[in-house]
Structures are given as C-alpha cells and as structure tokens.
Amino acid sequence: MAEYDVWAPDYDEWASDMTEDVPFYVDLAREFAGDTLVELGVGTGRIAIPIARETGKRVIGIDRSPAMLDVGRERAGDLPIEFCEGDFRDFTIEEPVDLVICPFRALLHAPTWADKRRVFESVAAALKPGGRFAWNTFVFSPFLAAQNHGRKQTRGGDLWEVVQQVPADNRIDLTRGRGDREDGMVQLWWVTKSEWEGLIDVSGLEVEALYGWFDRRPFDDDSQEFVWVARKPG
Amino acid sequence: MSAYDAWAAVYDAWGGQNPGDVAHYVELARAADGPIVELAVGTGRVAIEVVRETGKPVLGIDSSPAMLEVAREKSAGLPLELRLGDMRELELDEPAALIYVPGRSLLHLHGWSEKRRVFERVARSLRPGGRFAFNAFVFSHAIAAQLDGTTQEQNGIAQTLRYSPADNRTEIVRDDGATLRLWWATKAEWDGLLDVAGLEIEALYGGFEREPFTDESLEYVYVARKPA
C-alpha cells in the first residue's frame, strides 16, 4: 500500500535506534524444530535478514508496501526469505507454521478492534498447535505524549517528525519529512495491556509470557514496552 | 465490606462530576419497555432521579454495603430496590429492557477477563432488543501528565493521583489511606467487549447532549443493544 512506500528509502535510518529486538526474535526463531516462520510487517527485512542468516530458516515475510519489499529483496540476496505483498488482516499460508512474529510495533498500524481481531484470527489459523505468536509494541505514555504533542522533532540528520495525539481514537498521527520536504502521515493506534489480553482471548491463543523488554525481564508497572509471546493450545 | 465503603459518606460530593448524565439515563429509562437495572448504583445519585422522573421501578446493584446504606436513606419511599452484589456475578430473575452503568463505574474492572465477564453477564441478562448503556472518560494524556503525583483537595478531602500506563491504571489515594483504582480503556477495547458479548453498537456519543463522537470527544457514551 502506497502510504508506507514513501518511507522505504529512509526506513532503515528511521529504525536505526531500535536494535535490541533482533536477538530476541532470532532466539525465538532458533527455539523451534521446524524450518519456516512468518513475519508480519517484514518491511525492509531488518529482522528477517538476521533470522535467515543466523538460523538458516525460511522466512515468509508479509508487508503492504511494495517499495519496502523491493528494498528488502535486494538486501536479502540469496537468503531464504520470501517477500510477499499482503495485508496482515487476511493473509493465508499454505502450511501452518511454528512461529509468527510481528516486530517493531507494526500491529499498531491496525486501526480498529475489528481489524486487530482479524489479524489475530489469521495468525491463529496460520499456527500449528503449540505454535507461537510473538510481537512487541510500546506502552502508551501520557507523559511522553504530553511532551511531544504538536512538537516538531528532528531525528538524526535532517529527518523530522511532528506528532499529534488523538486520545479519543487512541491514535497518534505522525507527519514525517526531510529538510523542507514533507513526506506524508502515518497513523498508529496504541493498545493497552487489557486490549492485548482481549485479542489473545478472542483468537483462542494463550499467553505464554509478557516481558517488559527484549532481555525477557518481567513486565511490571514501570515497563515501557509490551513484549508478548502467545501460544496456540497444543 | 468493600473497598468502596470508605468513600460512601463523601461520594456524592466527590463523584457527582458528570453534568448532564442524569437526563441521558432518564431518557433511556423512559424508552425502556420492561425491567431497568443500574449496576454500581452507589449512593443512588442517578437511580433516584431515574425513579423520580419516570415513575418506573429500578433495581440498583452495588458491592458496597455502606454506599447502599446511603442510597437506602435517600430513596426512602421510592420504588428503588437496592441489592448487594458484584456486577461480575450479575444474575437477574427477569431479563431487563435496560441495564446501565453511569459514572464511569466500568473503569473499576481490572483486565480483559473481568470486563468480558461483566459484558457477557449483561448480554445474558437482557431481553432481545434490550439496551446496555454506559459511559467512561477518554484517557487524556494531557490531564494525566498534568495531574500525576499531584494532591488536590475536593470538599475538604485531600487526594493524590497516580498514573501507571503499563497497567492502564489510575490510583486516587486519599490522605487517610483509602484508595480507588480505575483502569482506563480505549475505544477499541469497548468495541471489542461489545463484540465478544454479542451486543450491537446502537450509538456512540461524545457526551450527554448526544453529540456525535469525534476526535475531540472527552467521554465515551455508549448505547448498545442485544439483537432482537
């Protein structure tokens, strides 16, 4: 989908301050016996490439942005990664897998409960019994939100971002650009702990662990990231 | 004894901050063709007005004996039946035409499973076509950032507010130690709870004037319906 295409050339630069998630997802990919996993929101392959390189497993990567997938395809070279254009609300795969991951807060691009429910139900259908679904998203901080609401922030070089908070729709509107150029808007819908529990519940998955960060520390009142591992009953 | 008992004596002065909500719930009660139930009836702030304005009997349920005691005194002679009970265990002898929860009381429920349980019990306790109405605040980052850690005095009672975003929780700690906890919920979560309970959204208003819900709204005012 075109709205994310505009980010493709700069995406790795945007994501450059997030690195600690890579070993977490690589470990999950290593922990199961099968040979295939699915990554939702694979983007430019920031996570899929290290997984394929370090575990030798095949990654089916799904993303809505053809431009992102092109970057990923080029970077992945001969690694066993399939970059597929698709919508994570209704993706299907031929054979159920042991692991589905959705790193880097990509689930926050789903606007409504109905969208999110469809994603979770698609994931549950794509998993083998005993298979895992792992994802992470930020904890919405009112304190950060109050600081950054309406402000233009630079994020390295001449990249910039303006944040608008829309609490009634639990939404954050991010307008991004470089220098004098405005590149467009991306919207994120933040999710509470309770709503994640609900999505796991309706899709028939079980919570295996909720961590507060990628080093698998326990989630507590001070946590700033939800790092979930759910499991389809075996 | 419940955690809310400590708040009974002051609740009306302290909690009556939803201007206009009474008229909204009175109107829903007027339209109801059958039994009417208020959950978390508390001291009867809304229920008493509903009974007075419509002349219809109301069943009010609350988990706090002290709150109900206040309500009983205030409603003497009116057809307001008060029952001690937990909304998570809701069971009615006769299906209701209207179940409503004013005053943001659903925010006292913690976690998805408690909320799901209440929504399912409500759905089961409604007649086909019966309505479920409630309101809750939109969680405002601006208010939270402004009030976190501050102590305010309201009607002579000092209370400190704390926000814990990881658990979507607000705590109101009174200077005598009594604590109220609220768990805020997003629009998506309310939609999800109605979805799993098999209720249909009839309307989502942005306030008690029944204005449309928009990006600027500060209150969720839901009216849902059990399919006929």
Secondary structure topology:
The complex is a heterodimer of chains A (234) and B (228).
Chain A: H1 2-5, H2 11-14, H3 21-30, E1 36-40, H4 48-55, E2 58-63, H5 66-76, E3 81-85, E4 97-102, H6 113-126, E5 127-138, H7 142-148, E6 152-154, E7 159-166, E8 171-178, E9 181-189, H8 193-202, E10 206-211, E11 225-231
Parallel strand pairs in A: 1-2, 1-4, 2-3, 4-5
Antiparallel strand pairs in A: 5-11, 6-7, 7-8, 8-9, 10-11
Helix pairs in contact in A: 3-4
Chain B: H1 11-15, H2 21-31, E1 36-39, H3 47-54, E2 58-62, H4 65-74, E3 80-84, E4 96-101, H5 111-125, E5 126-137, H6 141-147, E6 151-154, E7 157-164, E8 169-174, E9 179-183, H7 187-197, E10 200-205, E11 219-225
Parallel strand pairs in B: 1-2, 1-4, 2-3, 4-5
Antiparallel strand pairs in B: 5-11, 6-7, 7-8, 8-9, 10-11
Helix pairs in contact in B: 2-3, 5-7
Order of helices and strands of chain A: HHHEHEHEEHEHEEEEHEE
Number of E-state strands of chain B: 11
Strand order of the largest sheet of chain B: 3-2-1-4-5-11-10
User: Assembly state here?
Assistant: heterodimer
**Estimated structural class of chain B:** alpha/beta
In helices, the fraction of residues of chain B equals: 25-40%
- Beta strand count of chain A: 11
- The dominant shape of chain B is globular
Stretches of chain B where pLDDT is under 50 for at least 5 consecutive residues are none
Helix/strand order of chain B: HHEHEHEEHEHEEEEHEE
The main sheet of chain A comes to:
7 strands, mixed
**Beta-strand content bin of chain A:** 25-35%
Computed Rg of chain A: 17 Å
CATH superfamily (homologous) name of the largest domain in chain B: Vaccinia Virus protein VP39
